[in-house]
Recover the amino acids of this structure.
């Protein structure tokens, strides 16, 4: 489930970046250069999120921290949306963020993403030198 949430976030960021690019191309951006920058940064972010989602699918240990940080930033964006009166987008974004945290911190995900690290049950065992 964490994979689906991360991939969905990647798709949503890509859609937002494309919409920003369309607005920039049609002259609706405040400044042309900032509209282009927002579009490029959005597409690069979407590619990074897709890479993390692909790493979660395998599962790769390095993906846990970026995936958790994605959920943190998504939650921050949700709060800004809610404070700005965009309750529809804010509520959906907050649910997405909380679901991402829940699935990433669930015991099966934690076990899969920490393979090779001492688990709580054997944390007092000595590691080989």
């Amino acid at each position: 489930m964490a994979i689906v949430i991360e991939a969905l976030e990647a798709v949503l960021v890509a859609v937002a970046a494309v919409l920003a690019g369309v607005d920039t191309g049609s002259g609706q951006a405040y400044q042309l250069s900032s509209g282009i920058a927002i579009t490029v940064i959005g597409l690069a972010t979407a590619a990074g999120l897709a890479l993390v989602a692909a790493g979660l699918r395998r599962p790769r240990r390095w993906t846990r921290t970026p995936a958790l940080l994605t959920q943190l930033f998504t939650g921050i964006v949700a709060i800004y949306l809610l404070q700005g009166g965009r309750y529809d987008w804010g509520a959906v974004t907050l649910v997405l963020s909380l679901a991402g945290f829940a699935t990433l911190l669930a015991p099966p995900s934690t076990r899969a993403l920490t393979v090779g690290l001492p688990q709580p049950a054997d944390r007092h065992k000595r590691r080989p030198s």
About this structure: Residues 2-115 form one domain. The two ends are 37 Å apart (CA to CA). Residues 84 and 118 are 44 Å apart (CA to CA). DSSP finds five helices and no strands in the chain.
